[in-house]
Amino acid sequence: MSEKENRQLIHIPAEKLVDALLHAKQFEQHYATQESVDSLKEQMNTRFEQVNDKFAQVNDRFEQVNDRFEQVNVKLAEQKTEVNQRFTQVEKTIDEFKVSTEQKFAEQKAENNRRFDKLETKFDRMQWFIVAAALALIFKDYLFKSIVGL
Q1: Contact 82/89 with Cβ under 8 angstroms?
Q2: pLDDT tens for the chain, residues 1 to 150
């Protein structure tokens, strides 16, 4: 062998050569081709797009829920207004009933006072009749003698 050939030859001990041949497969997984990298990149982009689509769907659903809550709030406000109007009507009716009842009570009281006055007058007459009758009984002999003795 010439010196030039010696320079081009690489000397590897047998042990290292056997070791390299036996363990060569374990390093193959670390070597990636541009095609596999592009494929992996495409898969990841596809997954990210799917995740973004899911997020968009979730956002749309949240918007629908928000719209529904707004509709419910509007209906609650309408119901509250209606309930307030009904309470106002009930309060007005109660006030009218109270005034009416007070008027009727005042009229009934006046009527009762008039009737009691009438009854009191009748009792007064009856009392005087009883007094007159009692006096007539007490003085009957004297009255009878004075009328007959004339």
Answers
A1: no
A2: 566 665 667 777 778 777 777 766 555 555 567 787 888 889 899 999 999 999 999 999 999 999 999 999 999 999 999 999 999 999 999 999 999 999 999 999 999 999 999 999 999 999 999 999 988 888 888 877 777 765
Spell out the SS3 assignment of the chain: CCHHHHHHCCCCCHHHHHHHHHCCHHHHHHCCCHHHHHHHHHHHHHHHHHHHHHHHHHHHHHHHHHHHHHHHHHHHHHHHHHHHHHHHHHHHHHHHHHHHHHHHHHHHHHHHHHHHHHHHHHHHHHHHHHHHHHHHHHCHHHHHHHHHCC
Measure Cα distances from 131 to 85, 135, 138 in Å: 67, 6, 10
Residue 133 and residue 130: Cα distance in Å, rounded? 5
What's the CA angle centered on 136, arms 134 and 138, to 5 degrees? 70
